[in-house]
Design a protein that fits this description.
This protein is an alpha/beta fold. It is about 45% helix and about 25% strand.
Length: about 300
């Protein structure tokens, strides 16, 4: 049984005969007759009573007609859904992101995307680089704003640079600091609170490397697995912190953020997705992000 059989059958009912159905459908009458005959043969029932050379529905035919109309309507919905999905107008997209690193641009980006594609269901996951990698592996994230890919990940994932994040020192307000900058070498005797290495190896290694270049190895007191906790422990006078500049958006009433010297280290924030066969919805999101990247970078810039 094909949809064609149902269309011809319902047309005969709707237009009260084979001749009018043929005229309306622009299909030869014998073809319609044969399709209805094939349908009756497959069902094993008579759909029409052909007494007096008119096509009148049998009782079985009347019941079948109701279901045939419903099937054709559902088929039309399914086809329209497929067409819209092919255009990226409907679907699902799961976005992973690093909270503070995306505060300056992600809300506006999501608003723009939903305005363009209101039929797409968005899911957002606020997490850390390590967990984002796991989410990709589990298929629960389609695209993510995270730190730079490892060489191994780069083999199967694509990335687009969003902006480069400077590092800043975060110190308790009780700490007297002259000026707006802090020399890394001046922190040599401090205890440190750093975001744990497993959560973001590139960030941890960049910070410790900066300290090593300044002539010391940082005395790490705590390695929290939440960036807000890093700031909170600094507020509690548990040590000094070095964090990406985007972390200055975190609530931090009891501490201050300072530019550092030297200030030549940058931590990339990138958009990442699986290279193989991105969906139409994902392509649309990638295009939107790439289009607005220059404005995103301006918003994320740290004023000197």
């Amino acid at each position: 049984m094909e949809l064609r059989h149902l269309r011809y059958f319902t047309a005969v009912v709707k237009w009260k005969g084979y001749r009018e159905a043929s005229r309306r459908l622009f299909v030869a009458q014998p073809a319609i007759s044969q399709a209805v005959s094939d349908l009756e043969h497959e069902l094993g029932v008579k759909l029409f009573s052909r007494a007096q050379r008119t096509a009148r529905l049998t009782e079985e035919g009347a019941l079948f007609y109701v279901e045939a109309v419903r099937t054709l309507e559902q088929a039309e919905i399914a086809m329209n859904t497929a067409r819209r999905a092919a255009k990226g107008e409907i679907g699902r997209l799961s976005i992973g992101f690093l909270g503070p690193a995306t505060y300056s641009f992600l809300p506006e980006l999501v608003r723009r995307f939903k305005a363009l594609y209101p039929g797409v269901k968005l899911t957002l996951q606020d997490t850390i680089p390590l967990q984002l990698e796991q989410a990709f592996d589990q298929g629960t994230v389609d695209v993510a704003f995270t730190r730079a890919l490892t060489p191994e990940r780069s083999k199967t994932y694509s990335s687009h640079l969003i902006y480069k994040d400077p590092l800043m020192a975060v110190l308790p307000k009780s700490r007297l600091v002259k000026g707006e900058r802090v020399r890394i070498a001046d922190l040599a005797n401090d205890r440190f609170v750093l975001f744990y290495r497993d959560g973001s190896p590139a960030l941890f290694d960049a910070i410790t490397g900066l300290c090593n270049e300044a002539g010391f190895s940082p005395k790490i007191e705590n390695e929290p697995n939440v960036m807000q906790t890093v700031v909170s422990l600094v507020e509690a006078d548990e040590g000094a912190g070095i964090v990406p500049a985007s972390m200055r958006y975190l609530r931090a009433d009891g501490c201050r953020f300072y530019r550092i010297r030297p200030d030549d280290v940058r931590i990339d924030l990138v958009m990442v997705w699986k290279t193989a066969e991105p969906s139409v919805v994902l392509k649309s999101f990638i295009d939107l992000v790439q289009k607005h990247t220059p404005n995103i970078r301006k918003k994320a810039e740290l004023v000197s």
